[in-house]
Amino acid sequence: MKTPSAILGSAAFFLAAPGVVAGLVPWLMTGGYERPLAGSALAAPGALLVAAGLAFLLHAFARFALEGRGTPAPVAPTDKLVVGGVYRHVRNPMYVAVVGIILGQALIFAWWPLAAYAAAVGTAMAAFVRFYEEPVLAARYGAEYEAYRMAVPGWVPRLTPWKGGG
Length: 166
Description:
The protein has 166 residues and is mainly α. 66% of the residues lie in helices and 0% in strands. It has helices spanning 3-16, 18-29, 40-66, 93-109, 112-141, 143-151.
């Protein structure tokens, strides 16, 4: 896929997937963010979690378009395995970021239904990764993916970046 198409496709998928899961649904759940805000002891860390999650999410999407020349959408996958940037620390930074954004909103509003939603989203993502993504990536990229999978954790980032994978 050419880079401009990858950028456009990734941007569309950004709005359709994490935009809905971490943006629209929490907005609807909170009545358009009309819930009262938590005190600063919760709201400040929540805001940091949302900001960090958004930064990681945007970085991960950019890696797909620029490094992989594809999109995160299963219908338009990357031409090559994406292992740079945040992917050197964790294999699933998009999913980790989305759950972090939702948990950040749960802290901002001190509202447990958002935390429960984050847990449900995380569980669904873990199942999707285990039963769909990992087998597809193993079939598509073979030994390259297996080496990456063995070196980089899926959900809890490693502190030092993985040095393999070009």
